[in-house]
Design brief:
2 copies of one chain form a homodimer. Chain A has 320 residues and is α/β, with parallel strands linked by helices. In chain A, 32% of the residues lie in helices and 22% in strands. Chain A has 2 domains: 167 residues, Peroxisomal Thiolase, Chain A, domain 1 (3-Layer(aba) Sandwich), CATH 3.40.47; 111 residues, Peroxisomal Thiolase, Chain A, domain 1 (3-Layer(aba) Sandwich), CATH 3.40.47. In chain A, the strands form 4 sheets. In chain A, strands 1-7-6-4-5 form a 5-stranded mixed β-sheet, sandwiched between helices.
Chain lengths: 320, 320
């Protein structure tokens, strides 16, 4: 990764705002989510407008020849300004990246990790080249604050990242990556709005918001699976990179609920100051980890030769 | 590619049906699209139900150890049963592919080519493995037959493919691939339904169908760019594979309008019997080329050592 920039909407919601909207006690929210001041998009701010701003910011602060870009990959939770429409191709035109191949990938809040893994596959010694990764999500639009049982959803915020990667230089190398999916829980969160199922049913009014289908009796096994898989990929990644936990300078993790983060800390016996997340910003969809990495680089917390581990629910990787 | 299966809905529309629905003369439709008997989905048939049927058909007729699958990639035009929901993960659970990593890619009707290119990158000598590619689209649901100015859209039909790929064997190898995007035309076709833009505007009733925004004065340059890019990637692909046009036994092409297909035939001086498309079935979204390849293999039209070129609007590749 040669360069990262991110954009967050100006408006925000504090823990107090969320408490008022959800009628959930502020202390209860704090216990589950920590303190929050989450960036939330206005109606005029869409996944595409935020993504475009992040890309233009990246191009302004870095010397990138857009004509030489081989790939523009737009990675997100999958809700775009329109359907059957490519935000990657639209941005290609704006930045004159005439020779790029553009496509979208969806992988929920893990989309950045999935995109990195793919780019590492398609750009290699035999196929050198460059890619622009764009992550953009406005998940707060799809949260019904008055009806959300799953507190973690109340921390969902909005933003966009633009990341430039090439394999001509050896800056911020991806050393190993590991990914896993458990489809048993694929129906836990979904948005009926915009799906074929809703289209057929013609029941549009009831489906504006993400629904959470996690009965109390499944809650424990859901979190157990999530935590086990999280630990599994992080461990696999460290082993594949021929490293040990103590070699990792920082763990940059997606902004999960405190319960999930605590389980990871405990397993790897990492001191809390080695763990970095988006904290106050909440869970910015697929944007979290690239924001934290950018802050980490900007503050010169890492130097040449250092290893950091980057992970979001479902994946992990290292760079030096 | 070790195995391919596909599923088409039982219901269909003939050229006569489309003529009645669109009030466009049958001869005019025939001149632009050729004869048609297109499979169209019922309300109960969704991208996910068709995809699942295709996958189960693939597993029934081939010996595939689903526990050993490394990737499940769902590639389509991007409209799923729900949003923020992974059809790939849902299918993972159904087929017990416990060790797979699942995600979606969107690349319009070129999604199969994009997925093949990615799989060829992530599965390599250093990272051997296997992938299940699933293509599924029900684009006919989004066509307003009474309002469609672009005749090509009237040939859009529904279906799903399942393709198994590993790099342990050397059956049906991908030798080269080439892809290009021109974002200048990214707004030509889009579906407001389900997009954030529509969500904000709250204007749901007017946006059930794909809109085509191709003014008469842009039509010529649009087709010129499309045809030039199509020829460019096919040629690039043949050159990269160190082959000549006469080495290619068959050209398996997406079901474009006759105008686009004719331009390709003429440029490469290929005799019409070497060109295979889905013909009567119309343009089955991202499903076209895998259907034609399956039919080609089933009829033993190709043998060990043969080269075929597979291309859809925007990409091409060869296999032996």
């Amino acid at each position: 990764m040669q360069a990262i920039e991110y954009i967050l909407p100006d408006s925000n919601k504090t823990l107090e705002d969320i408490s008022l909207l959800s009628s959930i006690d502020k202390e209860v929210l704090y216990g589950s989510l920590g303190d929050l001041k989450i960036p939330v998009s206005s109606d005029a701010e869409t996944p595409f407008t935020l993504a475009t701003q992040a890309v233009l910011k990246l191009l302004k602060s870095n010397c990138i020849d857009t004509k030489k870009l081989d790939y523009i990959i737009y990675a997100s939770s999958g809700v775009n300004d329109y359907q059957i429409w490519s935000p990657a191709a639209k941005i290609q035109k704006i930045i004159n990246a005439d020779n790029a191949f553009c496509f979208e990938i969806s992988n929920g809040c893990n989309a950045f990790m999935a995109a990195l893994h793919l780019v590492n596959g398609i750009l290699n010694i035999e196929n050198p080249g460059s890619a622009l990764l764009i992550m953009s999500d406005t998940l707060s639009k799809f949260i019904d604050y008055s009806e959300t049982e799953n507190l973690h959803l109340l921390s969902f915020s909005d933003g966009a990242d633009a990341v430039y990667i090439d394999n001509y230089s050896n800056k911020n190398l991806l050393i190993s990556s590991a990914l896993v999916t458990d489809g048993a829980y694929s129906d836990v969160v979904k948005l009926s709005y915009g799906g074929v199922f809703e289209y057929n049913a013609e029941k549009k009014s009831n489906s504006k918001y993400m629904s959470v289908n996690l009965p109390d009796e499944s809650r424990e096994s859901f979190y157990k699976t999530l935590i086990n898989n999280y630990i599994h990929v992080i461990e696999k990644c460290i082993v594949e990179a021929k490293l040990k936990t103590e070699n990792i300078k920082y763990f940059l993790l997606g902004r999960n609920s405190q319960k999930v983060l605590d389980a990871v800390f405990k397993y790897f016996l990492v001191s809390p100051d080695k763990i970095l997340t988006t904290q106050l910003l909440g869970h910015v969809g697929s944007i979290d980890v690239a924001i934290t990495l950018k802050i980490c680089l900007k503050k010169s917390l890492v130097h040449s030769g250092d290893y950091v581990l980057i992970a979001s629910t479902g994946s992990g990787y290292q760079r030096n």
